[in-house]
Amino acid sequence: APIPKRPVITTVVPAADKAPALWHYTTDQPASDWLKPGFNDTGWRQGESGFGTAATPGAKVRTVWNTRNIWMRREVSLAAGDLKDIQAYLHHDEDVEVYFNGVLALKSTGWTTSYDMFEIPPAAKAALKPGKNLIAIHCRQNEGGQYIDLGFANVKAQ
Q1: What is the distance between the alpha carbons of residues 63 and 81, in angstroms, rounded to a whole number?
Q2: How far apart are CA 92 and CA 113, in angstroms?
Q3: DSSP characters over 13-29
Q4: I need a surface site. Which of 22, 51, 99, 127 has the fewest CB within 10 A?
Q5: Taking a C-beta distance cutoff of 8 angstroms, is the pair 149, 11 a contact?
Q6: Which pTM was predicted?
Q7: 85-114 tens-digit pLDDT
Q8: Distance from the Cα of residue 37 to its chain's centroid
Q9: Alpha-carbon span 59 to 114, nearest angstrom
Q10: How many CB atoms neighbour CB 7 within 10 A?
Q11: 3-state secondary structure of 60
């Protein structure tokens, strides 16, 4: 049987392995609506992605995060043509929850040692729209290294 062709992966929103992005973040438990558009995060700190500690495998740390929890928010602009084949490009250590415009997009426990592609469930994909979108992340550190960063890519079969 012929070997399947590799998909074509095109960066839509770069992660820190390609270019840093500015995020609002806090390490203090925020109000319950922190993940929704319209939440006032002006009192939060700002830092460049990725967030974590230098000894974490595969990490591209630009902002040190060395507490148990981090909550992050960022707006990204997406074109209508980006939405059909979009996937999350994520490196997490450790447990992570990602929200798109207030909708839970993915939840994963444990850790990765590199950036991996994550398919976006239909309900979360439907929450993304052309124009500005709020991305909110909560990452929890349990043991060992720690790191969090996210971008988006289009993944198309050849």
Answers
A1: 32
A2: 8
A3: E--TTT---EEEEESS-
A4: 22
A5: no
A6: 0.95
A7: 999 999 999 999 999 999 999 999 999 999
A8: 16
A9: 7
A10: 15
A11: coil
